[in-house]
Amino acid sequence: MVQDVYDHLDRLLAERDRDDMAPTIAALREVFEQHPSDARVLYELAGAYDTGGQEEEAAGLYRRALDSGLSGDIRRRCLLQYGSTLRNLGRFEESLALFASARREFPESASLAAFEAISLHAAGDADAAVGALLDVVAEFVDAPELERYKPALRGNAAYLRERDGRTA
């Protein structure tokens, strides 16, 4: 039964038009009305509102989805999207706190690290943002020509964090 709902969600999302999210939102609202406490339904509806530019609506739904027990990769994606939405709403401290927590939970996530850097930049912390991106490159970019320079990238990242007053 639950898998049928999730298969239906997957079909709706595969057919969405990111330039016109109204039909997808309407279809997802129907699923939500039947399953109002399902964490994945909440997450997918939040994402549709977010893509449609309705960040306030999305933020509340992302919070509910997280509180309803998302786990695994969908939880990671929800944390990323929620943190990004908070940034778009100008709620920089909340965004940064959420990304810090999410990165502790998913330390191997390059996407969380990259979007945290975007939030740092949006919050006016250019040095911390560049430092964070240097860390992303050193940690996650697998290019033979970079191997020799990864210590320098990490050193520059640490310097920028120190200059900015951030230690982690």
Overview of the structural elements:
The protein has 168 residues and is mainly alpha-helical. The longest helix has 17 residues, at 72-88. It has helices at 2-15, 22-34, 39-51, 55-67, 72-88, 92-105, 110-122, 126-140, 144-147, 150-164. The mean pLDDT is 94. The radius of gyration is 18 Å and the shape is elongated. The protein folds into two domains: 1-70, Serine Threonine Protein Phosphatase 5, Tetratricopeptide repeat (Alpha Horseshoe); 94-168. The chain is built from ten helices and no strands.
What is the global morphology? elongated
Largest sheet: none
Give a count of the beta strands, DSSP E runs of length 2 or more: 0
Helical content band: over 70%
Question: Which features does this protein show?
Answer:
single chain; 168 residues; mainly alpha; Serine Threonine Protein Phosphatase 5, Tetratricopeptide repeat; 2 domains; 10 helices
Task: Itemize the secondary structure elements and their pairings.
Layout: H1 2-15, H2 22-34, H3 39-51, H4 55-67, H5 72-88, H6 92-105, H7 110-122, H8 126-140, H9 144-147, H10 150-164
In short:
With 168 residues, the chain is mainly α. The chain is 78% helix and 0% strand. It folds into two domains: 1-70, Serine Threonine Protein Phosphatase 5, Tetratricopeptide repeat; 94-168.
